[in-house]
Specification:
single chain; about 150 residues; 4 helices; about 30% helix
């Protein structure tokens, strides 16, 4: 399975698109980032695991956010919340747990985030700029890495 470990603020919610959602409490996703993410999913057959701090609100809340922004497919999970850990360590924990189940084993992955606290997973990071989020350049890098 191919997975994108997805941050939300700075990737899907951008500094240049600050619109309050009418369907949930918080900012709407940047429509350009949404279209890029959808294209990645279609072209690579990848799934989304949320690594953002938004995951602390629960999977049902994440599903509502994604669907309200027009993303109906691909969202399969979220990384664990580990006390005093960097995001890279939480992603490593998810990968370790997923490897024991053939239906969830991750064969390729990319991390999409505006921060770089990934530790040894830094080579898998496609870092975005919080103002523009998931743009054309980042989309192309992700697609190339997941091929």
């Amino acid at each position: 399975m191919k997975v994108i470990f997805l941050d939300i603020d700075g990737v899907m919610i951008t500094g240049s698109y600050r619109k309050i959602s009418s369907q949930y409490d918080g900012y709407a996703f940047d429509p350009t980032a949404v279209e890029h993410l959808k294209e990645i999913i279609v072209k690579t057959g990848t799934y989304i695991v949320v690594s953002s701090t938004w995951r602390k609100a629960g999977f049902a809340r994440l599903k509502t956010m994604f669907e309200a922004n027009g993303i109906y497919e691909g969202l399969i999970g979220q990384t664990p919340v580990l006390e005093y850990s960097r995001r890279g360590e939480e992603i490593k924990e998810y990968l370790a747990e997923a490897q024991y189940d053939p239906t969830t084993k991750v064969e390729k992955f990319v991390i999409l985030d505006d921060l770089n606290d990934m530790g040894e997973l830094l080579p898998y990071l496609v870092q975005t700029n919080w103002m523009v989020g998931l743009n054309q350049e980042a989309k192309e890098k992700v697609i190339e890495m997941l091929k």
